């Protein structure tokens, strides 16, 4: 008897375009969300977007509660949960980069209230996904969480954000190529749950971004449009898969390890891009697609070397040779690669 079942949880309203931040209240009302909003944001996004959203609610006689977070941590999530228990909000709104959105997402899951995602940077593909990603000591948790009920992505705000945030988002998408290679390998060798639809959507998203690379230029609002649609699509792939597998393989393990070894040095997307060059080399060898990945990153101004990530060569070697320990996710790194092998792949790909 056929006994499989799945839940694919997706946002209902995805609102993208110029000035749509001013439609946030409308997007919320259309979902019939009631009660006081709890806005989770971080310092810069607060000035750029959250205060504007507060004004919109104030014009309707609603006074949102705001929690400002500085880092992605379980302490920050707990602070949001504690505030939510005090004020009993009707729903949450995450306004900012990956950190604010992940925290809002995970707190919303804990307190059982819906959440709306308002990205201020096209820097990562968690803006739509049903996954939260939080470092915790020597490990990192990628946990199931509430997907947003709505996403409000204002391309004017995204286009005015520092250019490197957009190139980080592009690199996060380009890394889907190696994430899917790792996923297929893990399916073949370890029988991990695999979704052909999730994999195909993830690869197609990377393909479309790369084929539009010429239109992704600083100051062009169209660039934010292209990138944010790719980020939404990649997030949907994760929701279809029910895991971050379509968008996170060994290149993400490398990045998560760098967050421990060299915290705050480079953006998530930029680290996974460089990781992807090296893991593509491990998958397909000297004449494989690693050169295409490097060219794609280069064409959108994303880093391709350790120096551009502000890293020492030995930090790259350490991260690559130890990152398999970060979590139980089978990838091309298997049970780890030797330091000399890691140095060799980093040298051969020009990363160091
Ligand atoms: N759940 C998921 O599926 C995924 C989660 N992630 C997670 O997302 C995080 C990375 O996201 P990322 O966005 O790079 O990190 P942050 O949220 O830390 O944002 C990066 C920087 O950009 C600033 N910023 C945000 N918006 C603007 C703007 N419009 N103008 C100027 N500065 C701005 C932030 O300011 P400030 O310091 O003031 O906040 C911060 O300094 C990681 O924690 C990663 O694990 C990534 C991919 C997928
Ligand atoms: O960054 C992500 C996808 O781009 C999320 O993946 P993780 O599950 O590795 O945190
Ligand atoms: Zn990522």
Automatic annotation (TrEMBL):
EC number(s) recorded for this UniProt protein: 1.1.1.261
Domain of life: Archaea
Record bears the keyword NADP: yes
Keywords: Cytoplasm, Lipid biosynthesis, Lipid metabolism, Metal-binding, NAD, NADP, Oxidoreductase, Phospholipid biosynthesis, Phospholipid metabolism, Zinc
Binding-site positions, NAD(+): 98-102, 120-123, 129
Keyword Mitochondrion: no
Binding site for Zn(2+): 172, 252, 268
Gene Ontology CC: cytoplasm
Binding, substrate: 125, 172, 256
Binding site residues for glycerol: 125, 172, 252, 268
Cofactor annotation comment: Binds 1 zinc ion per subunit.
One Gene Ontology term from the biological process aspect of the record: glycerophospholipid metabolic process
Localization, UniProt: Cytoplasm
GO molecular function annotation: glycerol-1-phosphate dehydrogenase (NAD+) activity; glycerol-1-phosphate dehydrogenase (NADP+) activity; metal ion binding
Required co-factors: Zn(2+)
A Pfam cross-reference name: Fe-ADH_2
Pathway(s) the chain acts in: Membrane lipid metabolism; glycerophospholipid metabolism
Function summary: Catalyzes the NAD(P)H-dependent reduction of dihydroxyacetonephosphate (DHAP or glycerone phosphate) to glycerol 1-phosphate (G1P). The G1P thus generated is used as the glycerophosphate backbone of phospholipids in the cellular membranes of Archaea.
Protein family according to the UniProt entry: Belongs to the glycerol-1-phosphate dehydrogenase family.
Name of protein: Glycerol-1-phosphate dehydrogenase [NAD(P)+]
Organism: Natronoarchaeum philippinense
